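hey
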């Protein structure tokens, strides 16, 4: 209905403005990733989008490149030796997420919505966490209500509950509140939860 058109217009307008602002920093980050470690600049991974459709999401590569394990999933842990020095900074500040604004312009993601999890993680949680798959009834987002309510301290169930709150109350003004909270977290170098 009309709400989905407003949401898409919101994504197109804000996505275009944000890309115009971050384009130069993205070029600089791309060069730094290339200079500081071997491998591709962009890391892409299959995740579930709206209605469970598979989509590729893009990030700046923050880990050492290993072509043999490129399609395998292993959750990053604190002080993970696979994370590069630059990658640690990108992850801490959430700058590794910037390429996803192009996913937004393509219509595969929204700026605000439930974070898409790696497919292996989704398959693990879908039978363990009640209501987990309901989060796929809306487009996944770069940031969301769960992400601004705690970094790496929420359980999967907590995040699913917060995603459900977002889906029930989604509006332009709720999205603006989440964007503002995300901005403050990034400015304060707190990052947002993945």
């Amino acid at each position: 209905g009309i709400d989905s058109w407003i949401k898409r217009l919101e994504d197109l307008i804000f996505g275009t403005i944000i890309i115009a602002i971050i384009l130069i920093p993205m070029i600089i980050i791309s060069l730094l990733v290339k200079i500081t470690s071997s491998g591709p600049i962009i890391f892409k991974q299959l995740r579930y989008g709206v209605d469970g459709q598979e989509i590729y999401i893009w990030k700046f590569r923050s880990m050492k490149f290993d072509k043999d394990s490129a399609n395998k999933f292993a959750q990053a842990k604190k002080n993970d030796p696979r994370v590069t020095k630059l990658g640690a900074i990108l992850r801490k500040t959430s700058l590794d997420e910037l390429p996803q604004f192009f996913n937004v312009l393509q219509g595969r993601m929204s700026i605000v919505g439930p974070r898409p999890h790696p497919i292996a993680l989704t398959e693990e949680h879908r039978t363990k966490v009640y209501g987990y798959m309901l989060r796929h009834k809306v487009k996944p987002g770069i940031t969301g209500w769960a992400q601004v309510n705690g970094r790496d301290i929420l359980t999967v169930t907590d995040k699913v509950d917060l995603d459900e709150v977002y889906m029930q109350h989604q509006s332009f003004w709720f999205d603006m509140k989440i964007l503002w909270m995300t901005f403050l977290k990034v400015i304060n170098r707190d990052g947002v939860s993945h």
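DSSP finds six helices and four strands in the chain. Residues 2-36 form the longest helix (35 residues).
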